[in-house]
Queue: 4 jobs
Job 1
Amino acid sequence: MARPADREVDADEDDLWDLGVNANDDISLVLLDLPGDFVASIQSLADRVNSLWGPEPDNWLARFSGDPIGVLSHLSQHGLEDGARETIQMAEDCFPAGSRVNVSLKDDPESDDVWVVVHTDINADWEKAYGLFDSFVDKWINSASTTTQKCLRLTYHAR
């Protein structure tokens, strides 16, 4: 395909004309017809550009919450992100394999406050889970900041 002679184009657009691309083409279809080494060059360039912008933000809560963006926003607003990370890590360390930690937000029924609930489904019978949770709470009280203790609620369930 030749570009119209009466139209000025910049170098990048000129290269696309040489490839037979015009403004009405679906670029994904055009890329399918390009040689593999050219596509690899484009991917390499895209990777280099992305490295300048840095990686996607780490959404560490996605593994623990059905609403990681909402929970993370609340944690950040109240300076609780570090305390929540430490609490979750402590829960993972204190409870047996197969236990699951879930983080959610819950409205306080007696005020306008919103609590961050760290709930653990403990992979143990009730009696063992009770003892493990009690030890976890003791350890958490001795290490978590006062702010974290005021704003996070710890719950558990034996399974």
Job 2
Amino acid sequence: MKERRTQLIGIAVVAALAVAFAVQSSGLTYPSYVFPRAAISVVLVLCAINAYFAARGKPMAEGMAARTRHRLTPAVAIGAGATILYVVGVNVLGFYVSTFVFLALLYNWFSGREFPPLPKLLARIAGAAAATALIYLVFAKVLLVQTPRGFLM
């Protein structure tokens, strides 16, 4: 029973984040709104499917995820909290700065909770920088999409 409640809480958190993203992206015009609305729709459908299986008491995943389900709850909480801070950060610091910080923190959190040695830390920061640079190239240079600048930028 407790496991089912935990699953439903996690699903509710993800659904709430999707709805918050939908509200934030409601001011977009065509064609800018197509991808966010499609992604939100997919997330909400997956949440509904997972909520159905969780309410019926059936496992949502097999294999490693099913065996380590009790360890996923803190990861969901950390990921949800980081995502909320990221959304706020995008509005304050801008898209690219917030994306870099978000990726660097999550790479470090999910790669191991102990403080890594300097070479591993630099590799994780370099990975976040490379991913952010790739996102910049795709959105700003190829697709010519204006990303949020933030209040401080």
Job 3
Amino acid sequence: METNVESDDLFGVIFLKIKGANTHDVSSYFDALKVTIQALNDSRLENIMTGFYLNCIDNFVRFSYFTRQSDSLGKLMYVFTEYGLEEGRNHQEPDAKDIAEKYGGTGFEKRFRRFLVQYTTIAIELFHDNLIETKKKLLRYALEVRRKTWTLEQELYSNARKYLEPVFIQSTTYSKYDEKTKREFFIGFSAKPDPTNYDWGHFMIDCMLGDDPRPKNLLTEHEIEQEFTKYGLSV
């Protein structure tokens, strides 16, 4: 889905899980994510939202969406329920909200919303076609590449793009971006306008891995291998 989201579109959140499933570990998130992605192909959802993004919270799929319809929640849940999904915790009704407040401020609102929708579109395509390689790349980026250049914004942008673009280019959506859009996407990915909060790339890492590891210190290669094992991956 390419975004036509506006900064004044209503914002709502639904926390999804497989009906009747427990959420004791992250596998329940990936099970629900797979079904959520299937449901998002349903044509009945096309005119309800202007955009959406996905990530993990407490092993639920956090489905965040932008809409111009105040009654969109019921319409969305009607479709999701047909696919065997249910709410895992209380939803947030669609409402006017500045979601960039803690991620750079109001001046970043439209750009932040656009990035969230873009990364989700790319993530869904990679989830279908290249999940393992993408997870490996994002995990090493989180454990090593980002950690080494945390305070150097321009270098972080350059390293993020150099390291991650070879896998992102396998997304049909990303591969069709012109150079300006690709640059804006990776500037967004590495952006941390509020130094007290997460970088924007956190959302995509969390979506694909089920969380976002943030080591306090640089890890040895052996320690990185141990972290990969925790995620069921090999280096």
Job 4
Amino acid sequence: MIRLWCFLSGLWGLLLFMRAQMEPLPFALSFFLWLIGVLLIHAACIDSRTYRLPNKFIYLSAFLALTFSCLVFEWQFAVFGALLGFGALKTYQLVYRFLTQREGCGSGDTKLMLSLGALTGPYFCCPVIWTGIFAATLHLKLSGTPHTKNVFRTVPLGPYLVGAGLLTVLLQPVFM
């Protein structure tokens, strides 16, 4: 677990360095973005093992992501992205629960979208949600675990949302 976390944090740093070649950021902001990514990666590693996202990492990363986005972009961009990300995933959660009578994602995942929505902004937070859900569904389909009538396979959504969100942050200069 620790080795995976260290590897992913190092990979995140390397990818951020490569992103800086496309759109240079001051060192302090790059470090800030790296720290947010490390917090999100750590929360995703915990979620993949325990199926629970720790609130202390989620709230800290949401605060840092809002602060970062307010420094880099306008504050409306950050707040609207965070609210849209949270609201869109909360709507998905409620609709899925109403239609299937079981959980599709937890409240930790909706809180996670606060920080990812603030980082990606209102234009990219919905594609982050759908990419994360698609990746989790693809993982379930390709994992080969049998699905019976009363036993449902589960996979934590948080790591897929974090992966999609951080990939979007890295590729955002390409799309803008």
